[in-house]
Specification:
41% strand, 11% helix, 7 helices, 43 strands, mainly beta, 422 residues, globular, Pectate Lyase C-like
Length: 422
């Protein structure tokens, strides 16, 4: 009987020990591994795996041809070297990490310091790797309200008479946002994240959110004066300026506009496409919800913010100098004293297949475009009848990216199919 009792106690203790942790192996944690375009994690592979506590897991990233590895991001506190293509991570919690790759020749932008360094090489190619905001390294000293003696951010490619001071590289936002940008330079030419963009310069796939921008001439949240290419970008901001002020871009140059307004010839023909602004914009002359003064093509764009100024004030474009506006619209309230229009104030260029909301804008006339009621602006036939590349979807959360424009018929205004879902 005594032997049986001892045996039972022993079995009970062993069962209790086996019941601790998971399968007798102690505490386990999950490691989730992903990678960006341009490579993969070959060890231990991508996906989610479980490991015992304090296990040291080998990490190996492999870049594809024409890409290179930059660093591991995510829960990297226990990664031995987050900048090394081969390293280890020690499991003491659930972790999620990513291997980051960029194309050969491109420079990654991780924080405000990296963004600021663009001005040292204005012709290079850059990739924004994550959102930047007031909590990101470098904000206080570079882009906050106390930066640069209260002037805030210094636009990349400031105005001067030297072509080499302007941005002519490529900046791909990859769908990320630059938030909380502050600029207070009321006496300066060009205000915006980028000051002057010239021939060869490209800004794409970027959002400027919650910005507060004050400038003098050529003022926009994204670009002050654009002689390059802006596409698939957007802005939500408060913009103030004097001359040529827009929600996204202050002035778009064209060959004729460059000569007329004294811009150097290398500004070329700037373009803005597949972009939008929800900014509140105010100023004196040439004030627009998207663009203040346009000398180039604006296509497949819209603006919804309020616009106010003294003269040449428009819901989408303040003045369409020698440019073109096509397949675009505006809905924001528009107020001014001289030359005020629902879509554009003065049209010396060409406006086609473009509309403004006569009810929400408070304007029944425009020097270009066609005025529509709110009901008509939310009716797909208004736009399909104007040969827009548009299709109806079931809800604002659904996207059909085979078309430039989507709309929830009789419910929403048109929206761009690439837009982030709110």
């Amino acid at each position: 009987m005594k032997g049986i009792s001892i045996l039972l106690i022993t079995v009970t203790l062993l069962a209790g020990i086996a019941g601790c942790g998971d399968g007798g192996g102690g505490v386990e944690y999950d490691l989730t591994i992903t990678s960006t375009e341009g490579g993969e994690v070959t060890s231990p592979g991508e996906g989610t795996s479980s490991y015992d506590e304090e296990t040291e897991v080998s990490l190996v990233a492999t870049a594809e041809e024409e890409y290179y590895f930059v660093k591991w991001t995510g829960d990297v506190d226990t990664v031995d070297d987050a900048d090394a293509i081969e390293t280890t991570i020690t499991m003491s919690d659930n972790y999620s990490i990513a291997a980051n790759f960029v194309p050969d020749g491109a420079e990654p932008v991780w924080d405000w310091h990296d963004l600021d360094a663009i001005r040292d090489n204005l012709g290079a190619s850059y990739l924004l790797m994550n959102d930047l905001d007031s909590a990101t390294a470098g904000y206080i000293e570079l882009a906050g309200t106390t930066a640069n003696d209260g002037k805030g951010w210094q636009p990349i490619g400031m105005w001067d008479e030297l072509a080499e001071q302007f941005f002519h590289g490529i900046f791909d936002g990859q769908g990320y946002e630059i938030c909380d940008l502050f600029i207070n330079r009321p006496d300066e030419v060009t205000g915006g994240l980028f000051g002057c963009v010239v021939v060869g310069g490209v800004i794409e796939h970027l959002g400027v959110v919650n910005a507060d921008v004050t400038g003098g001439t050529g003022v926009g949240s994204l670009v002050g004066i654009n002689g390059g290419t802006v596409s698939s970008s957007y802005a939500t901001a408060v913009i103030n300026g004097n001359y040529a002020v827009g929600g996204l871009v202050g002035l778009i140059s064209g060959h004729d506009a460059a000569a007329e307004y004294g811009l150097p010839e290398y500004f070329g023909n700037g373009t803005v496409s597949k972009s939008y602004s929800t900014c509140s914009v105010s100023g004196n002359t040439f004030i627009g919800g998207l663009v203040g003064l346009n000398g180039g093509p604006v296509s497949n764009c819209y603006a919804t913010g309020s616009v106010s100024g003294n003269s040449s004030v428009g819901g989408l474009v303040g003045e369409n100098g020698s440019g073109t506006v096509s397949n675009s619209y505006s809905t924001g309230s528009v107020t001014g004293n001289l030359s005020v229009g629902g879509l554009v104030s003065n049209d010396n260029g060409i406006v086609t297949n473009s509309f403004w909301d006569t009810e929400t804008s408070g304007q029944t006339t425009s020097d270009g475009g066609t005025g529509k009621t709110t009901t008509e602006m939310q009716d797909i036939t208004t736009f399909s009848g104007a040969t827009w590349d548009i299709i109806a979807v079931a809800s604002p959360d659904i996207r059909n990216t085979s078309y430039i424009w989507n709309i929830v018929d009789d419910v929403t205004y048109p929206f761009l199919s690439w837009e982030p879902v709110s």
